[in-house]
Specification:
TIM Barrel, eight-stranded parallel sheet, globular
Length: about 350
């Protein structure tokens, strides 16, 4: 696949009014989600839940792509249509989570490194054959006493760049996800400083690995107060700090930035995105790549029951629509009650 083709896919992933659904929860993670609604996490229930989301009528108006888990990429609709083909036929780009999870970083207590580079070239070739046209790799950065260390930041930035280069070699657009966690008592300013450091190192490594920035999408955290911080930043403060940080460290060649929600409520994630787009003058598209912030209301409405299928789809479509409006700076909080 040519660089032009990768750039076209990347631009389509961040098209105006649309964003990316992160439906790539690992088996342990989706078990936690299902536990919250007292539903067994077996393959049948996982398939049915994902089918509920993907077959929501009108979804393609607001969703440009879906990040799948390995199991999900190999599953089909109840009618026997592979999920990747079903999505592609709707004009929704199928993607795949390819990292093997964040594990303890040896010698660095409290810090993590994402694994999964071994055998990645071969896995990417297989995923491309199964229909995936973009991939995702998540680095996890924790703010705490004495952390993150420079070594942790650099190690994760290096891994992200190696992954991205392998993706482009395979004809797959990489989503580069350096997530500074919102867990902890840190201030907005501390989050901005760590996010800036991580972004700086990540783009330095991407350059060294000869990654074409026009054929990738960045998936960062928003600059936000720690969840346990006594002073929570306002929506406007989050928007201003995040855009300031991104403008300083993200090259304009990147076609778009698709934020993770990172544990924010569905409403907060939408409001923050809308406020950023309202600032204007941005060199890249600003959109969403939410998991919980898109799915939580749908999961609750579904409740693991066939009788909740339609309600789950309605809840999902509402969040997708509101976030689509947020990418255009047209979201208003009063729309939540509609």
């Amino acid at each position: 696949m040519t660089a032009q083709s990768l750039a076209e896919i990347a631009r389509a992933m961040v098209a105006p009014g649309k964003g990316i659904l992160a439906a790539d929860e690992s088996s342990p993670t989706i078990k936690k989600r299902f536990d919250s609604i007292s539903t067994e996490s077996n393959e049948q229930n996982r398939q049915r839940y994902r089918e509920m989301l993907f077959t929501t009528e009108g979804m393609a108006e607001f969703i440009s792509g879906v990040i799948l888990y390995d199991e999900t990429l190999r599953q089909s609709t109840s009618d026997g249509v592979p999920f990747a083909k079903y999505l592609s036929d709707l004009g929704v780009i199928p993607g795949i989570k390819v990292d093997a999870g964040a594990k303890a970083l040896a010698g660095y207590p409290g810090e993590k490194i994402t694994e999964g580079l071994d055998g990645l070239r071969e896995r990417l070739k297989e995923y491309h054959g199964l229909g995936a046209r973009f991939a995702k790799w998540r680095a996890v950065i924790t703010i705490g006493s004495g952390i993150p260390t420079a070594f942790c930041l650099q190690a994760n930035a290096h891994a992200l760049a190696r992954y991205a280069a392998l993706c482009q070699e395979a004809g797959i657009v990489p989503i580069v996800e350096p997530e500074v966690l919102m867990d902890g008592g840190h201030t907005l300013a501390r989050c901005e400083a760590v996010t800036a450091d991580m972004l700086s190192r990540t783009f330095s490594e991407l350059h060294r690995h000869r990654v074409d920035l026009t054929g990738m999408v960045l998936k960062p955290n928003m600059v936000i107060s720690g969840s346990e911080c006594s002073s929570q930043a306002s929506v406007a403060e989050v928007a201003e700090a995040t855009v300031r940080c991104l403008k300083a460290y993200v090259p304009s060649a990147v076609p778009g930035i698709a934020f993770l929600s990172g544990g924010q409520s569905a409403e907060d994630a939408t409001a923050h995105l809308a406020a950023m787009n309202a600032l204007g003058g941005l060199p890249w598209a600003l959109t969403f790549s939410y998991g919980r912030a898109l799915q939580a209301p749908a999961l609750k409405a579904w409740g693991g029951q066939e009788s909740g299928f339609a309600a789950g789809q309605a809840a999902f479509l509402k969040r997708a629509r509101l976030n689509g409006l947020a990418t255009l700076a047209k979201y208003r909080s009063e729309m939540e009650a509609a």
